Amino acid sequence: MRKITYAEAIREALIEEMRRDPSVILYGEDVANFGGIFRVSAGLKDMFGDERVFDSPISENALVGGGVGAALTGLRPVVELQFADFLFTAGDEVVLKAGMWRYGHGGAYAIPLVVRCPSGATGVGPEHGQCPEAFFMHAPGLKIVSPSNPADAKGLLKSAIRDNNPVLYFEHKLLYATRGEVPEGEDVLVPLGKAAIAREGDDLTLVAISAMVPKALKAAKRLAAEGHSVEVIDPRSLVPFDRETIIESVKKTGKIVVAEESYKTLGVGAEIGAMLMEQALEYLDRPLRRVAIPDVPIPTAAVLEAFVLPNEEKIYQACRELLA
Amino acid sequence: MDKKLKLEIYRKMLLSRRLEERIAELIKAGQAGGFMHPGVGQEALQVAAIAALRPDDYLLYAHRGVAYWVARGIPIEKILCDLAGKEGGTNHGKGGVMRVVYPQLGVLGESGTLGGCFPIAAGAGLSIRVKGEDKVVLCFFGDGTSNRGTFHEALNLCAVRKLPVVFLCENNGWAVSTPTEKSTAVKDIAMRAAGYNVPGKTVDGNDPEAVYDAVKEAVDRARQGNGPSLLEGKTYRLWGHWVGDPEDYRSREEVEKHWRSDPLPRFEEKLAGEKILTEKIKAEFEAEAMATIDRAVEFSRSQPHPKPESALDDVFA
């Protein structure tokens, strides 16, 4: 199968969906002339014209709120925020408008909106490097996806665009250049709410999100060389969340580690832990371990950033501790 | 404005006034089942502006009063059911009377946070442009709300993209208990239009003809693809911010002064002077308003509460 990058996969999904459906539009800061600050949407303005692909002012509230208004009135807007961190800038429009407009108006409208959120720490400090999915998992009415490879990046974005609900689509900046096999075909979708088993195993369940997945796979390979069989689960969607795949795995392994590039307190790992307490406590042989950022902002200097970020070694060590 | 339209605007202003008076009675008697911000005194602005729209245009109303919905033609009984949080309204108890919604007449709903309307309006304008339609968005807001950052972002975006949105400020002099001059750097909200290079115009918001003419001009301009406008009607909130507001932040004299320019009797006298409104028509409108409201109150009383478990519905489509 052909191999393309994660960024190319996103671009291909945008092109296919825009060709398929004239109600799909794309806008955000620098997305048209420059093709996006990470060049993901390069060339789309020439393909689809300035009405459907355009540069917006630096106005995150108007971008996301405008997306809600456009979605209420029959478009399927894809809004790019330059950095996932800017979700907080647009907080009202994300949480209260995108997430609650439909509910507050008794289901009168659907809101088919996608907000693309480039996430992940890349030496750019506290306000440009977060993976803030967990903040928005707490907010009702928002779907959340975080693909870890090119095939999922494409298939999940296509599903998100076709979904009739607001979807926050987290694209990790350090994954843009990663290559992988991506099936061709306009209707090859990855469903929202279905986890992937990235590697099968029997001794320990390792849940990893977004850019933590390749790191988790490397850690699992090291552990395999030491005789430990680790199952790596990539949830792909955080809302809706595929609880069954994790619970089924834990029933088999009795041990779980969650690796995420977010703050430890009330992160995705905390929710998984609570879910297991409620639904699978009897299957756990060992306490859950979370590999996450200690509760500090992400520092800028490389040595400081590396100290707080989860990595392959930290994941490996957490697994070793449970497997001992 | 022709005679028929004048009478229609008067009829809807009257119906709105009587409906709010009834709602206030119900609230005071503990029978309304809900809560609202009265718009008494601002009906001319609301009704006349909406009269300048086509049925397929979009409307984002503000939080003050019932006249927007009455003007747009949403059945009164639905408004009362939403007030009471009952079935039979427009949002099944999910949003109360501050989130009346009516897609068939382009009524998109209301933002719970003030100023949330501006980006939504811009987005609806974007839809119209992308789909090549000739619809228009009318977005109401108060003078206090013009201080939200979303106002700036949406006005600028609409101006840059020439989106067909008419922003209409109801300047009633007060943001809850804070007078406009204590919160707002400009005397006229419409002066802010200069910052976005769009037309800005201030009119007497208690004069339905002045409001209609200004809104019609801005709506026509937007419909022809010439972009947004910022309009302002000067008016006054004759009642408190809510039913039961002690109103100890403003003087009785100030309020009494403004009652003398109450738009309802003022328009009534004008139409009587023009021989358009006769005593007979006036009596008919009064009787019809009362009968409509009585029926609507009965209807809302007869409606069931939503099923408790329906609280879990409508999160996702």
Could you characterize what this model shows?
The complex is a heterodimer of chains A (324) and B (317). Chain A is of the alpha/beta class and 324 residues long. Chain A has 2 domains: 3-181, Rossmann fold (3-Layer(aba) Sandwich); 196-323, Rossmann fold. Helices cover 37% and strands 20% of the residues of chain A. Chain A has a 7-stranded mixed beta sheet with strand order 3-2-4-5-7-6-12, sandwiched between helices. A 5-stranded mixed beta sheet of chain A has the order 9-11-10-13-14, with helices on both faces. The longest helix of chain A has 15 residues, at 6-20. With 317 residues, chain B is of the alpha/beta class. Chain B has a single domain (3-303), classed as Rossmann fold (3-Layer(aba) Sandwich), CATH 3.40.50.970. Chain B has a 5-stranded parallel beta sheet with strand order 1-2-3-7-6, sandwiched between helices. In chain B, α1 crosses α11 (279-302) and α4 (76-84) crosses α11. Chain B is globular and about 50 Å long. Chain A binds chain B through residues 23, 25, 51-52, 54, 56-57, 59, 61-75, 77, 92-93, 96-97, 100-112, 140-141, 143, 164-165, and chain B through 58, 89-95, 99, 101, 103, 108-109, 111-113, 116, 118-131, 149-150, 153-154, 156-157, 160-161, 313-317.
Summarize the structure in short.
The complex is a heterodimer of chains A (324) and B (317). With 324 residues, chain A is an alpha/beta fold.
